[in-house]
Amino acid sequence: MNTPARGRITAAFTDAGVSGTLCATDIDTGDTVALGADTPVCTASVHKLCLVATLYREAAAGRLDPTTPVDVPAAARAPGPTGLAVMRDAARLSLRDLASLAVAVSDNAAADVLWEHLGLDTVNAAMDALGLTRTIAVHNQAGLYATMRADAGDSGPAALVDPAAVARLTVLDPARTNRSTPREITALLGAIWRDEVCGGVWGEELRAVLGVQAWSHRLASGFPFDDVRVSGKTGSLPTQRHEAGVVEYPDGGRYAVAVFTRAASTAVTLPAADAAVGRAARLAVDALRARRAGP
Which residues fall within 8 angstroms of residue 128, CB to CB, at 6 or more apart? Predict the structure, then answer.
């Protein structure tokens, strides 16, 4: 990566009080901007990209029908602040509609129905088959929350802003939780957009599902233009704010970007840290677009 771009991206992280890693790739040329792109990271809900990609890969191979309806009982759902996780009654949705909820509002309960249906091993095998050997799931959303509760101790959610409690969380250690690298996550996104995960109608639908995320405070905040499309998936853990997605320009340029950050502060609300994800992504994409344009 050229020195000016590296300096600006690093400054964007520093100004927001975070450390960060980043990979941005021109999907069509392979040109890349990287900052710690091969560093292992905790993926949190960014791993739902792997989950949903596997669902559509299995559909394209004829091993499942994503229109299959699934009953979701009211009890024993994965915890979370959105979607089925906060709903009180039993529901019945198709696998692909569960995938839409898992992406659109990062619904943990919907995601865990998919994790149960597919299995961790199937998702990990799909990533391995795509050459993403460092992208590994070790637990579903309920398992992730159970680990956090066990590590935080008797204080419960309040402990998650206590620096001493946060330091105990194993979900912040990439060796012990769902993990990948920024480079591998952008490689997955590039493969999705090049129809290498699945093609035809399933590839089109997979990209459409990844374009329905409701959140615009991270990656999309760096691209506030009506004619630029941002498809992404956030991920959050105490002190960590991430997003990975694809930015598509009206001139045909398309860029896979993954940004993973860790804040010095344990505060739950850090708008500057969220905005730094979009700022860093914009700087990286601008550098790629300048290279594509040439002298």
Answer: none
Residue ranges of E strands in 56-143:
69-72, 91-94
In angstroms, the CA 97 to CA 93 distance is 6
Structure tokens at 164: 């001493």
Q: What does the chain come to in residues?
A: 295
Cite the DSSP H helix spans in 153-250.
163-167, 182-193, 200-210
Phi, psi of 14, deg, nearest 5: -60, -45
- What is the token pair recorded at 244? 């990975």
The model's pLDDT over 90-130, given as tens digits with 9 standing for 90+, comes to 999 999 999 999 999 999 999 999 999 999 999 999 999 99
Rama region for 179: left / alpha / beta (φ>0; ψ in -120 to 50; rest): beta
Q: How far apart are CA 261 and CA 18, in angstroms?
A: 6
